[in-house]
Structures are given as C-alpha cells and as structure tokens.
Design a protein that fits this description.
This protein is mainly alpha-helical and 278 residues long. 80% of the residues lie in helices and 0% in strands. This is Flippase-like domain-containing protein.
Length: 278
C-alpha cells in the first residue's frame, strides 16, 4: 500500500500504521489513523487520504479473493459440504461485498456527499452547543473534501502501473505470510500441511484480524480462529496450537521492534517540528 505514495514520509506512515495494528484495536482504528496521519503531512483536507484508503481496500480485497480462491480450489478442487469450506466461501463473498462497496463509494461519492450534508445540518446545532466555535463544518468544506476525494480517486485510477504493482505486493504478502507459517510447521516436524492449506488458514486469520473488535492485536480471538482452522484441516490440536503461537511470536518479534522504532521516529520528528515552530 505504500506504493500509493512516492515520498519516504508517506511510506514511513504506512509502517507506523502497521505498529498501531499490532498494539491497538484493529480494523477501523488503523484506517482512521492512516487517514489522520497522512492528512497531517499532506496539503488539503481529508479527501485525498480517504481516497487512498478506499483504493487500498479495493486492491486488498481483490488480492484476498484471488489468493484465497486459488488456494481453496487447489486444495479441494470442487465445492465441498464441509463447514470449513463454507467458512472460506463466506469469507471470500464478504470480502467481495466490501470491495464492491468501496467501488460504489468511489463512483457514487456525490450521494455520500449529500447524505453527509444532511447529517451535518441535523447535528450541527448540538455540536455547536457542546463544542462552541471549534465546530465549523459548513457545506463548502464538505464540498471541498468530496471534490478532493473524487479528484484523488481519478488520479490514482490513472496510475495503472502503481495499481498493478500494489496488487502484486499485497498478493506476495499473502504468500510470504503463508511461507512463514509453513516453515514453522516443518520446524516442529509436521509435514502434512501444504502451502495452499496454510494459505487458506492465513486468509481466515486476516479476515478476523481486520474485524473492528476492541482487542489490541486480536489476541485470543485470532488464535482461536487460526487453531480451529488448522484442526478443521485435520491437524492435531497440540500441533495446531504450536504452529499458531510460534508463527505469531515470529511475526511479533519482527514487526513490533521495526514498526515501533519507526513510530517512535515519527513522534520524535513531529515533536521536534512542533518545538521549532514555537
């Protein structure tokens, strides 16, 4: 997703969002943080950052569906009555719906603009009462934000190379996560899982991890989903638990220090800039 931006600062912001994903409630929190942090360092309003998030979600969904569909087909070859396969199927359909919704938001942004104006007109008196003069979201600002959103969507859509490159990066990320988990299974002497079966488990884990539940890192819930998926594929519970915990440990050991260091650098730079201004 960092390919949507060219500057090192914007790429750095994406790593900081990764850190927030591991340490805060996932899903909506990460997207809101990415929009807010990008807007802080970009000229204009929230239209451009929001457009980048929407396009990323579309590419993210397409990457998920393509990899999950291929893995499921290669493992089972046909539609199965297994509850596990139904879960994978529902995950793919859900992701398609979310990606389609993001496309509709991009195309029909003017409808969302009108809805936002109506909601703002209803709640503005109450917000002014509680917030005083600090609340000043008028129709012109709403129009400007949505105009920038649509303009950013069009600019990103014309960058076909970046769109294709972003899709490839996201797809490769799915595969690399599965390779890590597969190497863990081999390291403990279990060889009955194929890369495609592990990939299906990683797909389910990703759906769970991006669900907006207020649990940092989705600890417990994500583990239950992953272990249950391995067991559904015929893996013993003890081995499934070992694979899950070791994989999570490796990902945490790699991601937390790296993203945490970059997040600290971001906060330090922001603090230094604020001190220089004062």
């Amino acid at each position: 997703m960092g390919l949507m931006f060219l500057s090192n600062k914007h790429i750095l912001l994406q790593w900081e969002v990764f850190f927030l994903i591991y340490t805060t409630p996932s899903g909506i929190t990460a997207e809101a943080a990415r929009i807010a942090m990008t807007k802080k360092h970009a000229a204009g309003d929230y239209g451009g950052p929001a457009a980048s998030v929407v396009v990323h979600r579309i590419i993210y969904g397409l990457g998920f569906v393509s990899v999950a569909s291929l893995a499921t087909f290669l493992v089972y070859g046909a539609i199965s009555s297994s509850p596990f396969i139904k879960t994978v199927f529902y995950a793919i359909i859900t992701t398609l719906i979310l990606a389609f919704t993001a496309v509709i938001i991009s195309i029909k942004a003017n409808i969302l603009r009108n809805i936002t104006k109506k909601i703002n007109a209803k709640v503005e008196p109450f917000l002014k009462k509680f917030l005083g003069s600090t609340h000043n979201l008028n129709s012109m600002k709403i129009d400007e934000t949505f105009d920038n959103f649509l303009k950013s969507i069009r600019r990103i859509a014309y960058s076909r190379f970046r769109l294709i490159a972003s899709y490839l990066v996201i797809t490769i990320r799915w595969i690399l996560l599965s390779v890590v988990a597969l190497l863990v299974t081999y390291s403990i002497g279990y060889y009955k899982l194929s890369i495609w079966e592990v990939m299906i488990v990683m797909m389910i884990a990703e759906i769970v991890s991006t669900t907006p539940i207020a649990i940092p890192g989705m600890l417990g819930i994500l583990d239950a989903a992953v272990i249950g998926s391995y067991v559904a594929l015929g893996t013993p519970v003890t081995i499934a638990t070992s694979i899950d915990l070791l994989t999570r440990l490796i990902l945490f050991v790699v991601n937390i220090p790296l993203t945490g260091t970059l997040f600290y650098k971001y906060l330090k730079d922001a603090s230094d800039q604020q001190q220089n201004k004062s």
